[in-house]
Amino acid sequence: MSKGDRTATGAPKKASELRLPALRVRQGERRTLYSFAVDGKTLDRFAAVSRLRRDEERAIHGYQRPEVLSHIGEIRRYLESTAPMIPNALVVAFDERVRFLPHEGLNGCAYSQHGELVIPLEGSSCQEGLPGWIVDGQQRAAAIREANIEAFPICVTAFITSDLQEQREQFILVNTTKPLPKGLIYELLPATESRLPTLLQRRRFPAHLMDRLNNESVSPFHRAISTPTTPNGIVKDNSILRMLENSLSDGALHPYRDPVTGRGDEATMLSIVNAFWAAVKEVFPDAWGKPPRRSRLMHGAGIVAMGYVMDAIADRYRSQTLTAALFKEDLEPLVEVCSWTHGYWDFGGGDIRKWNEVQNTSKDVFRLANLLLVEYKRRVWSRQGATATA
Prior knowledge:
The protein is α+β, with helices and mostly antiparallel strands. It contains ten helices and 14 strands.
């Protein structure tokens, strides 16, 4: 070590950048990846984990789920064993401070080139200031960091972007085939734009509507839907998604949907959903806001079944503006039919169930929805006419 490599006190200077041999790989016309190896113990000097969270205005930030300590412990024990190997590469997103210096005259082939990846380390004492974010592999990175080993080289595949949306998209695509919590993906979907696998593509717009229902104060479901950033919500996110998807497919929200883009008139859709569930909240006050184990109204079966009732009422009043007062008037006759928190459901034909025996299965949801729709048509529709007028 030369004299210039030490501080005035004689201690070694901390490197201002990390230079690593790397391979640049071009995928198609727009995508570029960088493949390199690095000591896993140094990862936290240049790459952080982007934790999923919301700010004071409920805007979403980050994309990673919390660390799974049991999983990290298993990997750590393996790393501390004899001859461990982790062949899977971590995926890291770098910002534009990271640069690639190609080795002239040492090209691999038409789509790859040898060179050096230069990663700045100065000014990166806090996580927010680091130039890299771990898109995939946070559990492995944490295990290497905590393992009682001196070093452990790890393969890394990286891309350079300053677009957080692209980082989220890559996070979703990388983790789609893994046992990643669906709620995490659903909460991230509204913040993405690129083409995704068919199932996720179909759920993007319903997930966007759900996000607004959960985070807008005018919504009856304000912060009541359970998601990674609203863990105390009492209604399951998947129940709300199913209710919205059904209505978008052929219910009250369908006329306002754009079949080309899959999106639609959000303002009108949300006004309908908010009006209906505000009416539900008022008509069934004793069942509203309770955990599903205490109220089948807030249970998956109740949410989805009542979604069908919303569609039926909207169809009856299709020539009018749908308001909470209108929904309330048509819901009130159903009060004596519903056993959300006590009593028994009479499904007819001798099928009588205790209030909490209705489960979130396709068969029970159909049975409950059918009961509510039959009673609605018998008590309201048939008495006042199929076509309601102002």
